[in-house]
Amino acid sequence: MTTHLHHDEFETLIETLNDDAALSAYKAPYDSYRPSLLPRILGGFLVWCGNLVYGKPSYLKFRAVEVIARVPYHSWASAVFTLLTMFYADENRALRLSTLSRFARFASDNETMHVVVISALARKEQRSGVIRHTLIPMLFAFFYFWLSYLLYLVNPRWSLETNYLFEQHAFDQYSLFLKDNEETLKAKPIESDFLAWYGRHPRSQYEFFRSVRNDEIVHRNQSIHEIEAHRKHGAC
């Protein structure tokens, strides 16, 4: 499970997923996972709205996606804090919640790297509007934060499954972007102080977006790993 991977181990996994066969093998166990009805409705609504506002994959669409994608991890951390305040005397439950909190922090840092670097690329590549590309993503993020928080308090599975669907959508969008723009992206070098600080060193925009695609599928799978872990402890 990726929850316990250190940064270097995580980066090794991301590098491994550059191989198509390795990626297919990693994806396969959860490709056929079917979330509950409520997450399907909510996840479908989020994806539909995003496609309606931002259309096909682009730098600016990805900036909006990443502003929103990092939200559940902060939301879960807040929900865990609330639950630990209520159930601190239950050591087993505290351990389960703290494990999720560790994953949430790790994934949040990863998603923050995405939004910082992609925002810088978007400024160079496309012209943005304040309402469509700043205000709307912030409103989406606000809505998604409280949705994820409340869902987790009521039923952790619903919140994790909604994230599964959103991360699947992100993976699909990055895959399409890489396929449609492979040669152009390979010809564009990438320089980012934040990316270097994070510890990732792609040589081109293609390598960067490929690594982000891989991050998203890891986050997708980890959402289901967390559901399975919750189920073992009778929490889902």
Structural topology:
Blueprint: H1 7-16, H2 20-31, H3 37-54, H4 59-69, H5 71-87, H6 91-125, H7 130-154, H8 156-180, H9 182-186, H10 193-198, H11 205-232
Provide keyphrases for this structure:
11 helices; 81% helix; Ferritin; 236 residues; mainly alpha
Instruction: Tell the overall outline.
Output: globular
Query: Distance N terminus to C terminus?
Result: 18 Å
Architecture (CATH level 2) name: Up-down Bundle
Total domain units: 1
Unreliable residue runs: none
* Number of helical regions: 11
CATH superfamily: Alternative oxidase
Provide the CATH top-level class: Mainly Alpha
How many strands in all?
0
Radius of gyration: 17 Å
Description:
With 236 residues, the protein is an all-alpha fold. It has a single domain, classed as Up-down Bundle (Ferritin), CATH 1.20.1260. The chain has eleven helices and no strands. α4 runs parallel beside α7 and α8 packs antiparallel against α11. It is globular. The two termini are 18 Å apart. The mean pLDDT is 91.
